């Protein structure tokens, strides 16, 4: 069975636009505000799930926040995602396709 295409989330108005209010503040640092596109916005626009979003988040911020620890966190989540995908426990994904 072929994987269903990802349906990106489309937001109206001030949520995902360049003037979104949430982009103007960040708690606990400024590592996301330095980015051209924040991991949250990227994930939402591309319809990523929680695991995929976490991987993007950790890999995007590693140099500005927790260094190697963030890379290890991203790798750990990627390894879990691979295991779940191989076992056929990811909705809309066929590991044999």
Commentary on this structure:
The chain is built from three helices and no strands. With 97 residues, the chain is mainly α. It has a domain at 36-86.
Keywords summarizing the entry:
97 residues, mainly alpha, 3 helices, 0% strand, flat
Strand content is under 5%
Please count the helical segments. Answer: 3
Which stretches of 5+ consecutive residues score pLDDT under 50? 8-16
Give the topology string: H per helix, E per strand: HHH
Which descriptor suits the 3D outline? flat
Computed Rg: 15 Å
Write the layout of secondary structure elements.
Layout: H1 39-45, H2 50-61, H3 68-86
Helix pairs in contact: 1-2, 2-3
Q: What's the gist of this structure?
A:
With 97 residues, the chain is mostly helical.
């Amino acid at each position: 069975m072929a994987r269903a295409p990802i349906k990106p989330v489309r937001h109206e108005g001030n949520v995902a636009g360049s003037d979104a209010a949430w982009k103007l503040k960040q708690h606990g640092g400024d590592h996301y505000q330095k980015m051209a596109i924040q991991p949250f916005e990227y994930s939402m626009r591309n319809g990523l799930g929680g695991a995929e979003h976490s991987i993007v988040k950790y890999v995007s911020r590693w140099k500005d926040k927790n260094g190697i620890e963030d890379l290890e966190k991203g790798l750990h989540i990627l390894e879990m995602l691979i295991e779940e995908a191989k076992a056929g426990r990811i909705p809309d994904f066929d590991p044999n396709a």
